[in-house]
Design a protein that fits this description.
Layout lengths: L2 E5 L5 H10 L3 E5 L11 E3 L4 H10 L3 H9 L4 E4 L1 H6 E5 L12 E6 L10 E6 L1 H7 L4 E6 L4 E5 L4 E9 L20 E10 L2 E4 L10 H12 L2 H4 L24
Parallel strand pairs: 1-2, 1-3, 3-4, 4-12, 5-6
Antiparallel strand pairs: 6-9, 7-8, 10-11, 11-12
The structure holds glutamine.
EC number: 3.5.1.2
Organism: Lupinus luteus (European yellow lupine)
GO molecular function: glutaminase activity; lyase activity
Length: 252
Amino acid sequence: MAIIGVLALQGSFNEHIAALRRLGVKGVEIRKPEQLQNVTSLIIPGGESTTMAKLAEYHNMFPALREFVEKGKPVWGTCAGLIFLADKAIGQKTGGQQLVGGLDCTIHRNFFGSQIQSFEAEVLAPELASKEGGPETFRGVFIRAPAILEVGPEVQVLADYPVPANSLSSFDSSVEDQKGNVEEQSKVIVAVRQGSILGTAFHPELTADTRWHSYFIKMANENGDEASSSLVPVEVDISYNKKQLSDLPVFQ
Ligand code: GLN
Protein backbone atom coordinates (compact mmCIF):
# COMPACT_ATOMS: atom_id res chain seq x y z
CA MET A 1 0.00 0.00 0.00
CA ALA A 2 1.32 3.44 -0.90
CA ILE A 3 1.94 5.79 2.01
CA ILE A 4 1.42 9.53 1.99
CA GLY A 5 2.24 11.81 4.91
CA VAL A 6 -0.44 14.21 6.11
CA LEU A 7 0.67 17.12 8.29
CA ALA A 8 -1.43 16.62 11.41
CA LEU A 9 -0.83 19.71 13.51
CA GLN A 10 -4.28 21.19 13.02
CA GLY A 11 -7.16 21.24 10.53
CA SER A 12 -8.71 18.62 8.26
CA PHE A 13 -5.98 15.97 8.34
CA ASN A 14 -8.40 13.16 9.33
CA GLU A 15 -10.59 13.90 6.33
CA HIS A 16 -7.58 13.69 4.00
CA ILE A 17 -6.53 10.38 5.54
CA ALA A 18 -10.08 9.05 5.05
CA ALA A 19 -10.13 10.20 1.41
CA LEU A 20 -6.78 8.45 0.79
CA ARG A 21 -8.09 5.31 2.48
CA ARG A 22 -11.01 5.22 0.06
CA LEU A 23 -8.44 5.03 -2.74
CA GLY A 24 -6.47 2.24 -1.07
CA VAL A 25 -3.66 4.54 0.08
CA LYS A 26 -2.43 4.88 3.63
CA GLY A 27 -2.13 8.37 5.05
CA VAL A 28 0.18 8.76 8.03
CA GLU A 29 0.01 11.62 10.49
CA ILE A 30 3.11 13.80 10.55
CA ARG A 31 3.68 15.86 13.69
CA LYS A 32 7.44 15.90 14.11
CA PRO A 33 10.24 16.86 11.70
CA GLU A 34 11.87 13.41 11.84
CA GLN A 35 8.61 11.74 10.75
CA LEU A 36 9.02 13.40 7.35
CA GLN A 37 11.91 10.97 6.73
CA ASN A 38 9.38 8.12 6.59
CA VAL A 39 7.32 9.52 3.73
CA THR A 40 8.03 10.58 0.16
CA SER A 41 5.00 12.80 -0.37
CA LEU A 42 2.96 15.06 1.87
CA ILE A 43 -0.45 16.71 2.15
CA ILE A 44 -0.70 19.94 4.13
CA PRO A 45 -4.38 20.25 5.05
CA GLY A 46 -6.70 23.21 5.41
CA GLY A 47 -7.39 24.72 8.77
CA GLU A 48 -6.19 28.03 10.11
CA SER A 49 -2.83 28.98 8.73
CA THR A 50 -1.73 31.26 11.60
CA THR A 51 -2.48 28.56 14.18
CA MET A 52 -0.90 25.90 12.02
CA ALA A 53 2.19 28.06 11.56
CA LYS A 54 2.49 28.61 15.33
CA LEU A 55 2.27 24.86 15.93
CA ALA A 56 4.75 24.17 13.13
CA GLU A 57 7.14 26.66 14.68
CA TYR A 58 6.68 25.14 18.14
CA HIS A 59 7.49 21.68 16.77
CA ASN A 60 10.39 23.06 14.70
CA MET A 61 8.79 21.78 11.49
CA PHE A 62 9.68 24.62 9.13
CA PRO A 63 13.27 23.64 8.20
CA ALA A 64 12.21 20.02 7.52
CA LEU A 65 9.16 21.12 5.53
CA ARG A 66 11.25 23.52 3.42
CA GLU A 67 13.82 20.82 2.77
CA PHE A 68 11.05 18.40 1.76
CA VAL A 69 9.69 20.88 -0.80
CA GLU A 70 13.15 21.90 -2.05
CA LYS A 71 14.05 18.26 -2.69
CA GLY A 72 11.12 18.07 -5.12
CA LYS A 73 9.11 15.59 -3.09
CA PRO A 74 5.41 15.86 -4.01
CA VAL A 75 3.49 18.18 -1.69
CA TRP A 76 -0.17 19.15 -1.90
CA GLY A 77 -1.47 22.12 0.08
CA THR A 78 -5.21 22.59 0.48
CA CYS A 79 -6.51 25.97 1.65
CA ALA A 80 -4.36 26.87 4.70
CA GLY A 81 -1.87 24.31 3.33
CA LEU A 82 -1.79 26.23 0.05
CA ILE A 83 -1.07 29.44 2.00
CA PHE A 84 1.87 27.61 3.63
CA LEU A 85 3.33 26.74 0.23
CA ALA A 86 3.00 30.20 -1.34
CA ASP A 87 6.15 32.27 -1.78
CA LYS A 88 4.18 35.39 -0.92
CA ALA A 89 1.00 35.89 1.11
CA ILE A 90 -1.02 39.05 1.60
CA GLY A 91 -3.84 39.70 4.05
CA GLN A 92 -1.89 38.17 6.91
CA LYS A 93 -2.26 39.10 10.55
CA THR A 94 0.07 41.83 11.83
CA GLY A 95 3.60 40.48 11.94
CA GLY A 96 2.67 37.84 9.38
CA GLN A 97 3.45 34.20 9.76
CA GLN A 98 6.18 31.93 8.56
CA LEU A 99 5.57 30.23 5.25
CA VAL A 100 7.17 27.10 3.83
CA GLY A 101 7.20 28.62 0.34
CA GLY A 102 8.27 26.96 -2.90
CA LEU A 103 5.19 27.80 -4.95
CA ASP A 104 5.86 30.84 -7.11
CA CYS A 105 2.68 32.79 -6.48
CA THR A 106 1.07 35.56 -4.47
CA ILE A 107 -1.86 34.42 -2.38
CA HIS A 108 -4.49 36.41 -0.56
CA ARG A 109 -5.11 34.63 2.72
CA ASN A 110 -8.84 35.34 3.10
CA PHE A 111 -9.69 36.53 -0.38
CA PHE A 112 -13.29 35.31 -0.30
CA GLY A 113 -14.05 36.96 3.04
CA SER A 114 -14.79 35.73 6.52
CA GLN A 115 -16.14 32.38 7.73
CA ILE A 116 -19.76 33.29 6.95
CA GLN A 117 -18.85 34.07 3.35
CA SER A 118 -17.78 30.45 2.86
CA PHE A 119 -19.51 28.82 -0.12
CA GLU A 120 -19.70 25.84 -2.44
CA ALA A 121 -19.60 26.08 -6.22
CA GLU A 122 -19.15 23.95 -9.33
CA VAL A 123 -15.70 24.78 -10.68
CA LEU A 124 -14.29 23.87 -14.09
CA ALA A 125 -11.07 21.85 -14.10
CA PRO A 126 -10.37 20.46 -17.59
CA GLU A 127 -6.94 19.08 -16.62
CA LEU A 128 -8.44 17.12 -13.71
CA ALA A 129 -11.21 15.74 -15.92
CA SER A 130 -8.77 14.77 -18.66
CA LYS A 131 -6.46 12.92 -16.23
CA GLU A 132 -9.07 11.44 -13.91
CA GLY A 133 -12.23 11.18 -16.02
CA GLY A 134 -15.63 12.25 -14.76
CA PRO A 135 -17.34 15.59 -15.23
CA GLU A 136 -15.56 18.77 -16.37
CA THR A 137 -16.41 20.39 -13.04
CA PHE A 138 -15.91 19.46 -9.40
CA ARG A 139 -17.70 20.68 -6.28
CA GLY A 140 -15.46 23.35 -4.75
CA VAL A 141 -15.90 23.77 -1.00
CA PHE A 142 -14.47 27.18 -0.13
CA ILE A 143 -14.14 27.75 3.63
CA ARG A 144 -12.80 31.20 4.44
CA ALA A 145 -10.79 30.44 1.39
CA PRO A 146 -7.67 32.03 -0.01
CA ALA A 147 -7.20 32.83 -3.70
CA ILE A 148 -4.10 33.10 -5.83
CA LEU A 149 -3.73 36.52 -7.42
CA GLU A 150 -0.53 36.03 -9.42
CA VAL A 151 1.57 33.08 -10.55
CA GLY A 152 5.08 32.72 -11.93
CA PRO A 153 5.90 31.25 -15.36
CA GLU A 154 6.45 27.70 -14.09
CA VAL A 155 2.99 27.47 -12.56
CA GLN A 156 0.21 25.65 -14.38
CA VAL A 157 -3.28 26.94 -13.58
CA LEU A 158 -5.64 24.00 -13.05
CA ALA A 159 -8.75 25.95 -12.05
CA ASP A 160 -9.90 29.52 -11.68
CA TYR A 161 -13.04 31.14 -10.38
CA PRO A 162 -14.94 34.21 -11.64
CA VAL A 163 -15.08 37.25 -9.38
CA PRO A 164 -16.19 40.85 -9.96
CA ALA A 165 -13.27 42.86 -11.36
CA ASN A 166 -13.69 45.51 -8.69
CA SER A 167 -12.87 42.92 -5.98
CA LEU A 168 -9.38 42.73 -7.48
CA SER A 169 -8.73 46.38 -8.23
CA SER A 170 -7.02 47.09 -4.92
CA PHE A 171 -4.44 44.35 -5.60
CA ASP A 172 -3.97 44.61 -9.34
CA SER A 173 -3.38 47.91 -11.09
CA SER A 174 -4.25 46.34 -14.47
CA VAL A 175 -7.92 46.09 -13.46
CA GLU A 176 -7.94 49.66 -12.18
CA ASP A 177 -9.27 50.84 -15.56
CA GLN A 178 -12.36 48.70 -15.14
CA LYS A 179 -13.23 50.30 -11.83
CA GLY A 180 -16.09 52.31 -13.31
CA ASN A 181 -17.85 49.16 -14.44
CA VAL A 182 -18.81 47.01 -11.44
CA GLU A 183 -20.36 44.42 -13.76
CA GLU A 184 -16.94 43.61 -15.21
CA GLN A 185 -15.84 40.01 -14.48
CA SER A 186 -12.36 38.91 -13.66
CA LYS A 187 -11.07 35.71 -12.12
CA VAL A 188 -8.82 34.41 -9.42
CA ILE A 189 -6.83 31.19 -9.45
CA VAL A 190 -7.97 28.39 -7.14
CA ALA A 191 -5.89 25.36 -8.20
CA VAL A 192 -2.32 25.17 -9.47
CA ARG A 193 0.52 22.82 -10.12
CA GLN A 194 4.20 23.69 -10.21
CA GLY A 195 6.22 20.55 -10.81
CA SER A 196 5.91 18.47 -7.65
CA ILE A 197 3.72 21.03 -5.86
CA LEU A 198 -0.07 20.94 -6.05
CA GLY A 199 -2.17 23.68 -4.47
CA THR A 200 -5.94 23.99 -4.09
CA ALA A 201 -7.82 26.82 -2.38
CA PHE A 202 -10.82 24.56 -1.69
CA HIS A 203 -11.37 21.34 0.28
CA PRO A 204 -11.66 18.20 -1.89
CA GLU A 205 -11.34 16.05 1.25
CA LEU A 206 -14.82 17.23 2.29
CA THR A 207 -16.47 15.88 -0.85
CA ALA A 208 -17.06 12.38 -2.14
CA ASP A 209 -15.18 13.21 -5.35
CA THR A 210 -11.76 11.63 -4.89
CA ARG A 211 -10.29 12.84 -8.18
CA TRP A 212 -7.98 15.47 -6.63
CA HIS A 213 -6.59 12.83 -4.25
CA SER A 214 -6.19 10.42 -7.13
CA TYR A 215 -4.44 13.16 -9.15
CA PHE A 216 -2.00 13.76 -6.28
CA ILE A 217 -1.36 10.03 -5.76
CA LYS A 218 -0.34 9.86 -9.42
CA MET A 219 2.01 12.83 -8.89
CA ALA A 220 3.49 10.97 -5.94
CA ASN A 221 3.90 7.80 -7.99
CA GLU A 222 5.35 9.64 -10.99
CA ASN A 223 7.96 11.41 -8.91
CA GLY A 224 11.61 10.44 -9.57
CA ASP A 225 13.38 7.26 -8.55
CA GLU A 226 14.02 8.09 -4.94
CA ALA A 227 10.38 8.78 -4.12
CA SER A 228 8.70 6.19 -6.30
CA SER A 229 10.80 3.29 -5.03
CA SER A 230 8.80 3.19 -1.81
CA LEU A 231 5.41 3.70 -3.41
CA VAL A 232 3.67 0.74 -4.94
CA PRO A 233 1.33 1.50 -7.83
CA VAL A 234 -2.14 2.00 -6.49
CA GLU A 235 -5.43 0.90 -7.92
CA VAL A 236 -7.20 4.20 -8.18
CA ASP A 237 -10.93 4.05 -7.80
CA ILE A 238 -12.49 7.10 -9.43
CA SER A 239 -16.04 6.06 -8.60
CA TYR A 240 -16.48 9.28 -6.64
CA ASN A 241 -20.22 9.22 -7.19
CA LYS A 242 -20.87 5.84 -5.61
CA LYS A 243 -22.87 6.08 -2.42
CA GLN A 244 -20.48 3.82 -0.55
CA LEU A 245 -19.04 6.14 2.02
CA SER A 246 -19.93 5.93 5.63
CA ASP A 247 -16.90 7.42 7.31
CA LEU A 248 -17.10 11.01 6.16
CA PRO A 249 -19.30 14.03 6.55
CA VAL A 250 -18.88 14.71 2.86
CA PHE A 251 -20.80 16.39 0.11
CA GLN A 252 -22.28 13.60 -2.06
N1 GLN B 1 -8.00 31.52 5.17
C1 GLN B 1 -7.66 30.57 6.18
C2 GLN B 1 -6.32 30.89 6.82
O1 GLN B 1 -5.78 31.90 6.68
C3 GLN B 1 -7.61 29.16 5.62
C4 GLN B 1 -8.96 28.57 5.64
C5 GLN B 1 -8.99 27.09 5.39
O2 GLN B 1 -7.98 26.40 5.43
N2 GLN B 1 -10.18 26.58 5.22
O3 GLN B 1 -5.80 30.11 7.51
